[in-house]
Inverse folding.
């Protein structure tokens, strides 16, 4: 690896699935010192045993961030999971102000593919405005525009196999799915390497359609699972019928609309350039997770 940077490296959202994997990557590379910031630092005892300093920090409590970010040099801001309109942007704004006050000199941020005004994804504006705020700090930055997680296919893929049909409202649109594990590798590499200020599209090796996903599910199941393209409103009503609150159903349906309208049709070599290793394909990920896809549904 060229131009290896010194820490302290700070990772926010450190007890989340991505945060934990980023820290594991930093530890594996021997990078440090590592400061793990979380609303629940007590959940990080296992990482503290490996020399990671756990600190309490909550983006909704700006006062907590002064101590949390003190002494940091390179900071990863993991976007929060708060989808209530306005809440996430306010939280990110607090984190960015605290980073500036702490004198952080490089900010890495987990954004979203194509966070343009026209994107149908309901929370796309949170990412667009966060990117702008980070650029305005004057610190160096690496914006990682993560495409949709391949892991998301595990949520509905088992159900598609059970029903014998793969429903989506994505028409023939393609998505450059990327695994969470590959996003973690990218974030760790962006912390450790001098990349200058850049905006990278973190994607899998190729963009694929929902018909392609259905073909892989067919291979996993050992039987034909056809893709059935349905209208967006039918998808929303089906999710509500399955017990999902309407707000969340519309968030998930907006991913499908974004796929249908080609906003997710982005697959680049940025991940390989950054980490030296290409991302895992959807095919290889789903085959590796065959047992989870074929497990009986949880009641
Ligand atoms: N590209 C995609 O398809 C995709 C899919 C799902 C999520 N995402 C985004 O990527 C992020 C990481 O994904 P994940 O899989 O690790 O999700 P996750 O396991 O649900 O983690 C949620 C994260 O949000 C953090 N968080 C929530 N509220 C916070 C607050 N007030 N202050 C600071 N941090 C807060 C949590 O940190 P602590 O609990 O440690 O404080 C945790 O790291 C998500 O939060 C979401 O923005 C992207």
């Amino acid at each position: 690896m060229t131009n290896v940077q010194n820490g302290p490296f700070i990772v926010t959202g450190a007890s989340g699935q991505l945060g934990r994997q980023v820290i594991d990557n930093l530890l594996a590379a021997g990078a440090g010192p590592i400061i793990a910031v979380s609303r629940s630092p007590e959940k990080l005892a296992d990482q503290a045993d490996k020399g990671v300093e756990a600190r309490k920090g909550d983006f909704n409590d700006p006062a907590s961030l002064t101590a949390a970010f003190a002494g940091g040099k390179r900071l990863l801001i993991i976007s929060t999971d708060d989808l209530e309109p306005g809440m996430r942007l306010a939280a990110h704004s607090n984190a960015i102000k605290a980073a500036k006050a702490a004198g952080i000199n490089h900010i890495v941020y987990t954004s979203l593919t194509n966070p343009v005004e026209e994107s149908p994804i309901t929370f796309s504006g949170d990412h667009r405005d966060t990117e702008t705020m980070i650029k305005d700090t004057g610190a160096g930055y690496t914006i990682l525009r993560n495409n949709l997680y391949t892991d998301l296919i595990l949520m509905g893929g088992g159900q598609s196999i059970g029903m014998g049909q793969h429903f989506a409202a994505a028409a023939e649109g393609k998505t450059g799915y990327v695994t969470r594990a590959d996003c973690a590798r990218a974030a760790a590499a962006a912390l450790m390497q001098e990349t200058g200020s850049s905006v990278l599209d973190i994607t899998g090796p190729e963009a694929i359609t929902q018909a392609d996903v259905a073909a892989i599910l067919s291979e996993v199941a050992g039987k034909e699972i056809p893709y059935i393209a349905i209208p967006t409103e039918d998808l929303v009503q089906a999710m509500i019928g399955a017990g999902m609150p309407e707000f969340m159903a519309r968030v998930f349906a907006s991913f499908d609309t974004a796929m249908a309208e080609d906003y997710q049709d982005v697959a680049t070599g940025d991940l390989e350039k950054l980490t030296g290793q290409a991302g895992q394909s959807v095919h290889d990920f789903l085959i590796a997770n065959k047992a989870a896809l074929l497990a009986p549904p949880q009641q």
User: Anything to note?
Assistant: The chain is about 45% helix and 15% strand. Residues 9-147+178-203+266-279 form a domain with the Rossmann fold fold (CATH 3.40.50.720). The CA atoms of residues 236 and 242 lie 10 Å apart.
